[in-house]
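Working notes for the structural subgroup meeting. M.R. asked for a predicted model of this chain before we commit to crystallization trials. I am recording the input and output together here so anyone reviewing the notebook later can reproduce the run.

Input as submitted:
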Amino acid sequence: MKTTNKYVLISRIIILSLLAIFTLFPIIYTITNSFMSVNEINQYYNAESTSQMKIHLIPNRFSLNSYYQTLFRRPDYLVKFWNSLGLTSAIVFGQVAISTMAGYAFAKFKFPGRNSIFFIVIILMMMPYQVTLVSNYIVLKEIGLLNTYAAIILPSIFSPFGVFLLRQVIVTMPDEIIEAAKIDGANTFQILIKMVVPFSRSGIVALVILSFIDNWNMVEQPLVFLNNKYKYPLSIFLSQLNQSNPGIAFACGVLAMAPVALLFIFFEKELIEGISFSNLK
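Returned structure, recorded in token form:
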């Protein structure tokens, strides 16, 4: 019996290790290739002939040329990074503010049609963003917001997923705490800021991370709502770089991974707790 359990454990370790290697390979590949020299880039990733491209994992010579070009010689690449960071930060801030208030209302307030409205929120959460892309475009065109950052930020901050997530977290908060605060004279806003927000910290952090990852990788919204390519975020720009300049694309890829990786590293515990509180599977 012990021998069987040992073989099962070894099999699981092997399978999980292979899955980990398969998952991490693109990340490792991007990081290592970002330190290639110009000659290696031209040798292994000939932009003029895709048939001559070869997979090369370890650089023959360590070089920071791609980062130098990205950060100092071609600041337009760095501008795209700040475009992404600004857009994503604004969307995340708006989602957290609106989702916290809406989640609190659905969890602790009783009003006509509450369950029906929340059911609609769940339906909207399951719908892909592309379904509402055309209607959003028409509305934004009518109010004159096309080709502005507001065209991307405003539709994105009303996130059904954020409302659902924080509602699931806040509903676990004991009603007695809120009632005691009301007896002490606290108004709705004070209860929200001083009690609900601290209680929902793990859920809010989870929403920040998940929302940041989702909007950091946005593609459809900038392509549809922005006409000026200089306003494009880094996620759009990377697809163009992959074809024209692989060396810069590797360096920009590392820059694109850095914020998401740092968020996960520093707030992994809160992410897991927030998802656990919300009963998401």
